[in-house]
Specification:
Blueprint (H helix, E strand, L loop, with lengths): L12 H14 L8 H8 L5 H7 L1 H4 L4 H18 L23 H32 L20 H14 L6 H14 L7 H25 L2 H11 L5 H17 L4 H12 L18 H12 L6 H14 L3 H17 L1 H6 L1 H13 L4 H19 L8 H12 L8 H14 L1 H21 L6 H19 L65 H12 L5 H12 L7 H16 L4 H15 L3 H14 L11 H21 L3 H20 L5 H27 L5 H24 L11 H16 L3 H17 L27 H15 L13 H13 L4 H17 L7 H16 L5 H20 L4 H11 L7 H12 L18 H19 L8 H15 L5 H18 L5 H28 L13 H7 L1 H11 L8 H17 L2 H4 L3 H8 L11 H15 L4 H4 L1
Helix pairs in contact: 1-2, 1-5, 5-6, 5-7, 6-7, 6-8, 7-9, 8-9, 8-10, 9-10, 9-11, 10-12, 11-13, 14-15, 15-18, 17-18, 18-20, 19-20, 19-21, 20-21, 20-22, 21-22, 22-24, 23-24, 23-25, 24-26, 25-26, 25-27, 28-30, 29-30, 29-31, 30-32, 31-32, 31-34, 32-34, 34-36, 35-36, 36-38, 37-38, 38-39, ...
């Protein structure tokens, strides 16, 4: 038997590498790093020095193409195998231990020296290959699409790879000072960025960025100003925003870290201020995501980086301040604000007169609020530079105070508030200027206050005093950004650039380490100030100031400015004593219940609420007793209508104040005790007179709404004391309803207040809010007494109140023979069940189907809409949370039986069938919200009723009930199962069937087609208000004919929904058309876009206008809300549709809106206001020529 042939011996690592190198050098394409070579290097079977020796001949070959490919291969090894993470920065701990063995120190330094020396060769290769390529290839027109241009030019690939390799090596901690010097010198000597496109320039700046970020100390020592001059030559003329972000970041570091002569400072001024202000606007859908704000903030950091810029920057900025407007002026002010602390006191003094005059004009004669605020912040910075730590203030500040006091000699004049604003800036700036401004202002204003012949002048006096007090408060609280101050640092946002690298990761300038001792001074925040540190500047005016505020708070003419001044004064720690705050707070308290003080009541409440955060004991001692005293035990009927109305108004003001003030834990605890006590007293009494009972129903509802408002506010602010009340309050509140139901069934002379359906609903809402706050374990404790109460009438922790014994109670609301009072009370208890978490089992021992089986007949027999709504909500909760998916056979059988016996059966009572249909819709909504497979079958059954005359319209509106999201039942807050995209799934199932049904509707013999189609239009109109905008956009072409028909329907809701959708389509369509125009033309051969929303609107504009004017006319089917929707749609058309389309209809619309009884002559004021807006929109129509 012949011996088998032996396998060939494996190749040595050097042979494998040699083969890979030869294949790479022979390939003209821009190939990646050969995998075989990568494997040999990663396995350490081949070292970097061995690789360089193997490439020796190719690296010195006379053929530029071959030499360039060899250089690129070596660069690919570095960029792909060198460690990607940055090593510790220069000056930090850490050595070469963290660098993989492949890039040990000697190999890395050898590579760095090699690539630095090869930069010149790479430039020559790029030039030679580019000339050869250009001679052979046809020219590319300047108007050619950008995709035909290469990011890296042909022949420049070796240069690009060399730059990337050097940037990767420079990031290693073994990259030494000498290597950094060699690379910088070679880069400056041989590379001219202006000769290359953006992507190549980006690689150059990226290398400089790494050198500066990691080796700037060594570069300062070895090259010094030579490096700065070389850098300035590199960046000269750069305009691309992608590269400017890198340049600005590098400029900032160099200006802060390098010592430079006046000549170099001027050069850097020329290199940075030439870009000021930024006028770049990103194109639509910019793939790089560079914003104007990013560039603006990055440039601003450069402009204020060093005082060496001051001699050249200050004259330019002052010139811009005087000449510029709009955004340019705002940016000039922002730069001045940040530059002044850096440029220093000497620069500020040299330009103080020009700067003050410029800022004075912008504040005293402000054209807009933004410019005024920016000028104020700049003035604060200016004064702080001049006078921080300077005592006493001399020169400009006293002159400013004198000028402002001259203006304030007439406090009511138009310039007086601006003068007070300037003095407020001095108060914010420094303690010395604050004392100067406060003393001069208060002495003058308080003298005028005491000697005022005209009482009306006291209001502006208090306003000016309040302006300074608020400034002093801001200074002590460290508030530096009153108004809309722009951030001083660029947003940390990654920006991707089009580089030659295969990496797709986002690139940002390298973080700079905090090294070096030559950093330029920074703009630092003002030192902490306090009333004591500022030498108590208000002390000489204490008595006069407190007296003026006390008088103002009790006046009807100037109490609002007095209130604002007091609230600012109360937040200045160390000035007002406790007795003075109490005294002044009493004056504020009187405003809360005053009959004529609506304009001041809101600010008073806001101020007291803010005061409660620091002085809650004051509100507890002075404010709350006054408000609680306004709450009676019960409302009485005096027979005097005017007196009763005054009492009710005072009561409403007291409850409103309590709802705003008592969110703090200690105040809320007091309020809960008082409110629950008042509820017990008001609900326990018997009221024989209907008017008296109605008044107390309103009173009890006001107490409940106050309590719920505070609970919701505390929940939104995540107060930690809420779980305690969520345990204790539900039994107290439900006891009111329970006792009223028992008393009512026991033969009470009059229906108790707590048995009123409105009170039961309010108690239910409060209980729902409380149960939401409980953890599932705590909810289990709640249902331990709640379920026995609902199922068997067990009283549990509930109290009956005086006069009833527990042995007399027989509370069975679910029984078939339940008393009406018991049935009416059940919604409050079901409200607690609706808010339970899905992990809490339902009643009847957790048997969800049995619980649903009991709820169905109870809801079907509802005697009121409140009972029906409560039963539907409970059924929705059980089907959404407790019945497993897929639906259990018992649950499916229960639903089938309910459909056939209660809805489908034509002989059943019509009203009972409508209630059953609404129940069915609620259950379908519950299953659809959790995307149950059974939901679609239920929806099909609803759609099948569109052919049933008795239920067609109810079924159509039922779809709207399913689509609504604001019912407050099936929400995540209530523990419901809410799946993602369930609404989109619902609409994608229902909409096509409605559209198809409308088109295919066949009327019965002798019946008009419009009657059958109208049902589908009503269904569509019911769906529109809740339809997701994207769904509307996608389906608009199919929906639009139906919308036009819906405007003619004898249904107010359908008309309003159709008008609102058309208005939305017009507004969205205008934006889409504008975006499409900005994006440019569609390339040849690209698919054409479908009709945009605005195209549909314009093609039917004549019909739309006719029908909208008809809907805007008062009629049975066009109530006020529907007319308002039609008028808003008309206004939207005028603002969105092109002039050429609207012009033929302009006169018709204007006449229609001015017709008797229509539009601006409508009987309802709200409609007239909308008509005026619509008429103005049509009157101001302009053609494109007019707009120009």
């Amino acid at each position: 038997m012949a011996a088998e042939a032996s396998p060939p011996p494996p190749l040595s690592p050097s042979s494998v590498a040699t083969q890979a190198i030869r294949a790479f050098l022979a390939d003209d394409a821009a190939a990646p790093l050969p995998p075989q070579l990568r494997a040999q290097l990663e396995a350490r079977r081949l070292s970097l020095l061995q690789l360089i020796r193997m490439l020796g001949d190719a690296l010195t070959d006379d053929d530029e193409a071959r030499r360039g490919r060899a250089l690129r291969l070596l660069a690919l090894v570095v960029t792909e195998l060198a460690p990607a993470q940055s090593a510790p920065a220069e000056g930090s701990a850490g050595g070469s231990a963290g660098v993989p063995q492949l890039f040990e120190r000697q190999a890395s330094l050898t590579l760095a020296g090699f690539f630095a020396g090869k930069l010149e060769d790479a430039v020559l290769i790029a030039d030679s290959l580019a000339r050869a390529h250009n001679a052979a290839a046809p020219p590319v027109a300047g108007s050619a699409p950008s995709f035909r241009h290469r990011r890296i030019p042909v022949g420049a690939e070796p240069l690009a790879a060399t730059l990337e390799a050097l940037a990767r090596l420079a990031a290693l901690d073994v990259f030494g000072a000498e290597a950094a010097k060699d690379v910088a010198e070679s880069l400056f000597a041989h590379v001219t960025p202006s000769l290359y496109p953006q992507a190549m320039r980006y690689l150059i700046y990226r290398l400089v960025d790494v050198l500066v970020a990691r080796h700037r100390n060594s570069l300062k020592a070895s090259l010094g100003e030579t490096f700065l001059r070389g850098y300035l030559k590199l960046v000269e003329g750069e305009k691309d925003p992608r590269n400017l972000l890198y340049c600005f970041a590098t400029d900032w570091v160099l200006l802060r870290e390098f010592e430079m002569s006046r000549e170099l400072g001027e050069a850097f001024f020329d290199a940075t201020y030439c870009y000021f202000p930024i006028t770049f606007r990103p194109p639509p859908d910019d793939p790089y995501g560079i914003s104007t704000e990013q560039l603006t903030l990055a440039l601003r950091r450069c402009l204020v980086a060093s005082p060496v810029l001051a001699p050249h920057a200050m004259p330019l900025l002052l010139e811009k301040l005087a000449a510029a407007g709009g955004n340019a002026k705002l940016e000039t002010l922002a730069v001045l604000e940040e530059a002044l602390p850096v440029f220093g006191r000497e620069a500020a003094l040299a330009n103080e007169s020009r700067l003050w005059e410029g800022l004075k004009i912008e504040i005293m004669h402000a054209t807009d609020d933004a410019t005024s605020l920016a000028s104020q912040r700049t003035l604060v910075s200016f004064m702080r530079v001049l006078y921080l730590g300077v005592e006493p203030p001399e020169g400009l500040a006293p002159r400013i105070v004198a000028d402002c006091l001259d203006v304030l000699e007439e406090p009511a004049k138009v310039l007086a508030p601006h003068a007070a604003t300037i003095l407020a800036c001095l108060v914010r700036a420094a303690p010395s200027t604050a004392y100067l401004a406060l003393y001069g202002m208060l002495e003058q204003m308080l003298t005028y206050w005491k000697n005022a012949d005209d009482v009306s002048v006291r209001a502006p006096i208090l306003e000016h005093i309040g302006t300074l007090l608020r400034a002093l408060r801001d200074a002590y609280e460290g508030r530096e950004t009153w108004g809309a101050a722009a951030p001083s640092q660029p947003a940390a946002k990654a920006v991707g650039f089009g580089t030659a690298s295969s990496s797709t990761s986002a690139v940002t300038p390298t973080p700079v380490s905090a090294e070096g001792s030559t950093a330029a001074p920074k703009a630092s925040p003002a030192p902490a100030r306090s009333y004591e540190i500022d030498s108590r500047p208000l002390e000489p005016f204490r008595d006069d100031l407190v007296g003026a505020l006390a008088n103002g708070l009790r006046s009807t003419q100037y109490r609002l400015p007095a209130l604002h001044a007091f609230l600012a004064l109360a937040r200045i720690p160390g000035f007002l004593e406790a007795r003075e705050i109490d005294y002044l707070t009493e004056g504020v308290n009187e405003l809360l219940l005053a009959a004529h003080g609506d304009e001041v009541r809101g600010p008073a409440l806001d101020g007291l609420r803010e005061l409660s955060l620091r002085h809650s004991h004051i509100l507890e001692a002075t404010t709350l007793p006054l408000l609680f005293a306004a709450l009676p035990d019960r409302m009485s009927s005096s027979g005097d209508a005017a007196l009763q109305e005054a009492e009710r108004s005072r009561l409403r003001r007291a409850l409103s104040a309590l709802a705003r003030l008592c969110a703090q834990p200690n105040l809320f605890d007091t309020l809960v005790v008082r409110v629950v006590t008042k509820l017990d007293l008001a609900c326990a009494a018997d009221y024989s007179a209907p008017a008296e009972r109605e008044a107390n129903v309103g009173y009890v509802r006001g107490l409940l709404v106050t309590l719920q408002t505070l609970l919701e506010d505390k929940a939104s602010e995540r107060h930690t004391d809420l779980p305690r009340y969520a345990v204790s309050l539900p039994p107290r509140l439900l006891s009111l309803v329970f006792a009223a139901a028992v008393r009512s069934s026991a033969g009470a002379a009059a229906v108790p207040v707590a048995a009123d359906p409105r009170v039961v609903a309010d108690v239910g809402s409060a209980v729902t809010t409380l149960v939401r706050m409980l953890e599932p374990a705590k909810q289990q404790s709640l249902v331990a007494w709640l379920y026995p109460l609902i199922e068997a009438g067990q009283q549990g922790p509930l109290s009956l109140g005086p006069g009833l014994a527990s042995s007399e109670v027989r509370f069975l609301p679910l029984a078939t023979d339940a008393q009406p009072a018991h049935r009416a009370a059940l919604p409050a208890f079901l409200a607690a069940y609706v808010a339970l978490h899905k992990s809490v089992p339902p009643p009847r021992g957790g048997d969800a189907v049995q619980w649903a089986r009991e709820l169905l007949p109870w809801t079907l027999a509802a005697a009121s809409r409140a009972e029906e709504t409560a039963g539907c909500a409970a059924l929705a909760a059980v089907f959404n949370k407790s019945i497993a998916e897929p639906l259990q056979p018992e649950a499916a059988a229960l639903l089938d039986d309910f459909w056939h016996s209660c809805i489908e059966q034509a002989s059943a009572d019509p009203q009972r069938r409508r209630i059953a249909l609404r129940i069915w819709c609620w259950i379908a909504k519950a299953l659809m919200t959790r995307t149950s497979a059974a939901a679609e079958g239920m929806l099909l059954r609803i759609l099948s009723l569109f052919d049933t005359p008795d239920l067609a319209r109810d079924a159509a509106r039922g779809l709207g009930l399913i689509a609504r999201t604001d019912d407050g039942v099936l929400s995540k807050e209530n523990g419901a199962v809410v799946r993602l995209l369930h609404r989109q799934r619902f609409y994608s199932f229902v909409l096509p069937k409605i559209i198809a049904g409308y088109r295919e509707a066949q009327p019965a013999p002798g019946a008009p087609a419009a009657a059958v189609q109208g049902v589908y239009l009503i269904a569509l109109a019911a769906l529109l208000p809740s339809m997701p905008r994207q769904t509307t956009r996608e389906r608009l072409s199919d929906l639009f004919p139906l919308l036009l028909r819906a405007l003619d329907l004898p249904d107010a809701g359908a008309r309003a929904s159709a008008a609102q959708t058309v208005a939305l389509a017009a507004a969205v369509g205008k934006k889409e058309r504008s975006d499409a125009i900005l994006a440019g033309s569609v390339p040849e051969g690209a698919p054409k876009r479908e009709n945009m929303p605005l195209d549909l609107v314009e093609s039917h504009v004549s019909t739309l206008i006719e029908r909208l004017l008809s809907v805007a006319t008062p009629s049975e089917h066009s109530p006020a809300d529907t007319r308002i929707a039609a008028l808003r749609c008309l206004a939207s058309l005028a603002r969105s549709v092109t002039y050429a389309v609207l012009h033929p209809h302009r006169v018709r619309v204007q006449r229609g809106l001015a017709a008797p009884g229509v539009g601006i002559d409508d009987p309802r004021r709200a409609v007239r206001l909308e008509a005026v807006e619509a008429r103005d929109a049509w009157l101001t129509l302009k053609s494109d020529d007019d707009a120009k």
